[in-house]
Structure formats: C-alpha cells, structure tokens
Amino acid sequence: MTDFYTVRVHHRQKGTDYTLKVPDNRYILQTAENQGADLPFACRNGACTSCAVRILSGEVHQPEAMGLSPDLRQQGYALLCVSYARSDLEVETQDEDEVYELQFGRYFGKGKVRFGLPLDED
Ligand code: FES
Question: Any idea where the 2Fe-2S ferredoxin-type domain is (predicted)?
C-alpha cells in the first residue's frame, strides 16, 4: 500500500512555496515537478548536490544520496532527487552551493579528499 505525505518546500531564492502530495515510493523531486514545482536540480542521481535542501521537520529516506556525507545527512540535509518521504515534511532550499562548500570547501587543500568524497574523521 502506498502512503502519501504532505511535503512543503520553500524555495528561498525564488520566494515560492509549494505544498505537494508525495507517495512514499517516488522521489520527491520527480513528484514535485509532476505537480508543477520549479526546483533546482542538475544530475538527478544523487551526485551533484544541486537539489539539496535543509529539512526543517520530518524524515526522509535517501539511500542513494551518495553526494551527501553521513555528517551532512545527520545535520538534516537531503537530496530531493533521490529522497523518499517517510513522514510529512517541511524543507527549504539551500543557499547556492551551500552543501558543496560545507562538504568540500574545508577539505580541499588539506589533503583529506580521496576519490572525490571527504573521508569520515572517525
Ligand atoms: S540533482 Fe544532483 S544530487 Fe540531486
């Protein structure tokens, strides 16, 4: 049985808000687009972080979000192109390149980047 959740997306750069009905077995980005939402994206496969959002409330499931470090997932970021809703959600778009900078900005130049992703510190 498919559960549906209400997902509210605040697009901070455009000042627009979307309220979407999202099934638990479809990616949020794809469903949002089908419902007319205009949200940022690029690769659509969890690698580039263009579609990253901050989760203000609720839970997502994002097993394929390989572009997002475990650290940032824990801090409440999600990649909408590969995220499934697991509850009603409220999210907002990141600042431009925010996630990329958080992830790579402090690592590049320190010799800690291997294979394109920061190593876990622990
Ligand atoms: S569009 Fe690239 S990670 Fe989602």
Answer: 5-97
Confirm or reject: Cβ of 67 under 6 Å from ligand 1: yes
Phi, psi of 9 (to 5 degrees): -115, 125
CA distance linking residue 13 with residue 82, whole number of Å: 21
> Which CATH superfamily groups domain 4-112?
Beta-grasp domain (3.10.20.30)
Give this prediction's pTM. Answer: 0.85
Ligand 1 contacts CB of residue 40 (under 6 A): no
For residue range 64-85, what is the model confidence (pLDDT) as tens digits? 999 999 999 999 999 999 999 9
- Ligand 1 centroid to Cα of residue 1, in Å, is 28
More confident residue, 100 or 52: 52
Ligand 1 pocket test target in 33, 72, 81, 98 with most atoms within 8 Å of CB: 81
For residue 65 the two structure tokens come to 């979000």
d(CA 76, CA 16): 21
